[in-house]
Amino acid sequence: MLELFAFPGGVKPDSHKEESARTPIVPAPLPPLLVVPFRQSATGGVDIRVQAGEQVLKGQCIGSAEGPFGTCVHAPTSGKVVAIESRTLPHPSALAAPCAIIEADGTETWRERVPLDPYATDPAQLRARIREAGIVGLGGAVFPSHVKMNARIDTLVINGAECEPWITCDDRLMRERAPTIVAGAAIIAHLMGAKRILIGIEDNKPDAAAAMRAAVAAVGQGEMQVISVPTRYPAGGEKQLIRVLTGIEIPYGKLGPDFGVQCFNVGTAHAVARAVLHDEPLITRVVTLAGNYVRPGNVEAPIGTPIDALLALGEPKADTDRIVMGGPMMGFVLPDTSLPVVKATNCLLAMSPTLFPPSPPEMPCIRCGACTRVCPMVLQPHELYWHARAKNFGKAQEYHLFDCIECGCCAYVCPAHIPLVDYYRFAKAEIRAREREKAAADRARERYEFRKFREERDKAEKAARLAAKAAETKAKLAQEGAEAVIAAAQSRAHAEEKDSS
Amino acid sequence: MAYAPHISQPVSVRAVMLKVLAALVPGIVAYVWFFGPAILVQIAIASLTALAAEALMLRLRGKPVLLFVTDGSALVTAWLVALTFPPIVPWWLTVTAILIAIVIAKHLYGGLGQNPFNPAMVAFCAMIVAYPQLMSQWPRAEMNTFEPMLRAIFSSDRQLDAIVMATPLDALRTILRDPEQRATIAGILGSHATFGNIGGRGWEWVAAGYLVGGLWLLQQRVITWHVPVAFAVTLAVIATGFNIANPERFVGANFHLFTGGAMLGAFFIATDPVSGSTTPLGKIIFAAGAALLTWIIRSFGAYPDGMAFAILLMNLFVPLIDMHTQPRVFGHRRKSET
Question: pTM higher than 0.90 for the full model?
Answer without folding.
Answer: no
